[in-house]
Design brief:
The protein is an alpha+beta fold and 231 residues long. Helices cover 37% and strands 18% of the residues. It has 9 helices and 9 strands. Strands 1, 2, 3, 4 and 5 form a 5-stranded mixed sheet that branches. It has a 4-stranded mixed sheet with strand order 7-6-9-8. Helix 2 runs parallel beside helix 6. The longest helix is centred in the C-terminal third of the chain and has 18 residues. The chain is globular. It catalyses: an N-acyl-L-alpha-aminoacyl-tRNA + H2O = an N-acyl-L-amino acid + a tRNA + H(+).
Length: 231
């Protein structure tokens, strides 16, 4: 079982993400991962999620507990019903992900609760191009095998940790780019350096698929990279 701390005592909330997967035209895996990470950032930067915004209390409740994200899939009429609920749809190259304000762990809206968590297996038709050093990169642990849905949630965690670590000016600059980022699997020979670099590191709570405490993502934002090297 994951170790208990004060976050476990708080009411548990979850951030729902729904990826559109139509039978005839599923998105590429990397496109879906990057779009999910951007969706988390778009919600965090939305004025409705801050101050007295209509989503702010739900976001605060969520952040006070375990930062859970759950990815479900939808197609056709399921997707149209999901789009009718309050949230934000983010589009990548072809992928579409809708993010919703946090909900109680046992209080999902009916039209989202009915959606499947399984069946989010996606592939890349071609290997992703090398990441650009000037762009934020969410590095995935090369030793772990995770479903696309699980990996989307982990990429979202990494993006969120990077957002929290950035000063206001850098957050604004990132938002102005549309939250440009890459998600790539790290070279096995480079993973130890990345995890020891001081950059934000996601450690999974172990609720699904992988062991508690597993390091899943390193959030490598250029502004944070500079801060680490200066330190």
């Amino acid at each position: 079982m994951p170790p208990s701390d004060s976050r476990d005592e708080a009411p548990q909330f979850v951030l729902p993400l729904v990826v559109r997967i139509e039978r005839a035209a599923p998105p590429a895996r990397t496109d879906a991962l990057e779009t999910a990470a951007r969706a988390v950032l778009v919600l965090l930067a939305d004025e409705r999620a801050a101050g007295d915004g209509e989503w702010a209390e739900a976001v605060r409740n969520w952040e006070d507990a375990r930062i859970r994200k759950v990815v479900r899939r939808a197609r056709g009429a399921e997707w149209r019903r999901a789009e009718a609920l309050p949230g934000i749809t983010v589009t990548g190259k072809a992928a579409q992900v809708r993010v919703f304000p946090p909900v109680p762990l046992d209080g999902w809206p009916k039209d989202l609760a009915k959606l499947q968590v399984s069946g989010t297996e996606l592939d890349d038709p071609e290997p992703p191009v090398a990441a650009e050093s000037a762009q934020p990169v969410l590095w995935l642990n090369p030793a772990l095998e995770m479903s696309a849905g699980k990996t989307m949630a982990q990429a979202g965690h990494g993006a969120q940790l990077a957002w929290w670590a950035l000063p206001a000016a850098e957050r604004t600059a990132w938002r102005d780019t549309g939250f440009a980022l890459c998600v790539r699997t790290a070279d096995p020979a480079d993973w130890a350096r990345l995890t020891g670099s001081g950059l934000p590191l996601v450690r999974d709570a172990g609720f699904t698929e992988i062991a508690p405490g597993s390091c899943t993502v390193v959030a490598d934002h250029p502004a944070l990279r500079q801060g680490v090297s200066d330190g």
